[in-house]
Task: structure prediction
Amino acid sequence: KPKKKLKTVGSLAPEASTATNIAHFDHEGDADHAFCPVCCTKGLIVLPAFAIGSGRGYGGAYLKNSINGRPPVYVLPLGETVFQDLLLSYVLPRYRGSLVSQSDPGPLWAQDGVIEGEREVTKVGYIQSLTWAARRTRLFPSAGGTCSRCGRASDVLVRGILCAQAWLRPDDAPTWRDPWAAYRESEREGELKVEPVRPQAERGLWRDFTALFLTEGGDDAMRPRVVRQLDYLIHDGVLSPDAPVRFDAFALRFERAKDKTLEWTHDSFDFPAAVIESEDTALTIRTALQEADEVAYDLVSGLRMLHPIMDRDSRDAAAVKAALASVIRQVLRRYWSSLEGVFREQLHSPLLVATEGERVTWLDEWRDAVRTSARDVLEAALDDFEADADDLRRQQKARARFYGGLKKHLGGDL
Result:
């Protein structure tokens, strides 16, 4: 339908600023986007995993999310070579899940014909799921020049595309369990549902280490199947428990209410393989991160004593609330930032995968780091606070609330 108005090629890159999707780090207008064939290919590869229900397709139909719904955090195991990367990401049949259909038509490029629009797909094969046709996309070549995305010269550039809904899962279909994503059970509207772990604002992926990598014993998290099958490879002698394992994690965070892309997240992890196969080690790490969360709550609780909104004139309540929120964000950011390096370093401690007594020692070392970090960031925040008589009283209340909670959650000397 050549009379249809073309969509900007910037739509292939979620981080590009297009129409109402205003990206913070991209200030090009719709007419300025011109992608070379390489960047177009990258965009098309990203679509099956990260297509979100943003904007409208042609014909007025709303574009729906891809097979995983809103994009989850994807975890990819890494080897020493590209071959090893591919080998570790090959999901063994026993780990593909019950929803995978035994009949598999294979990748899209091995099939004949044009992708059908708005086709409900109930049964999905393993290879089919990896090349899920979230969109019907047609690219229109135009004159060459400089690619606006990578900056390379190209004889051909794409400036306009057509994009419409392709395959979709029925609304009542069970949650598709992607082998590279972690999941949690959560209760919503009185119904128990399984949803993937997704990125959150101001929360580093390392804080979801339990859900992404650890055994499920006693927890509501279900780690990615490519991580679970490493246990099998270790027990089968393919991998050594003493060898390090490495992972890359990717996520796309967007504002659900406005279908607006906010940020890409990329993180890397490396630690001994024994960490992911021991339930005792998993329990120790789970306890460590849970206690750090509890101390973060103590920080927030103490800081609220500095700005008792209920004591202020209602005309000032909004300004006081905004000031308090800003202080809390800054303090929590410093707190978690200081703990991240400690956590990553302690993952390599031999105490973590040793005897029960040595794991207790590991946990005590972590608690000392949490206690020191929380105390330092709180006192730094109090030092920046004004110091008239009322303010000094509030500082003392803040300290009392914080140190009381710290004693309760971590014990030991303050």
Summary: Residues 186 and 269 are 26 Å apart (CA to CA). The radius of gyration is 25 Å. The first helix runs from residue 37 to 50. The first strand starts at residue 7 and ends at 8.
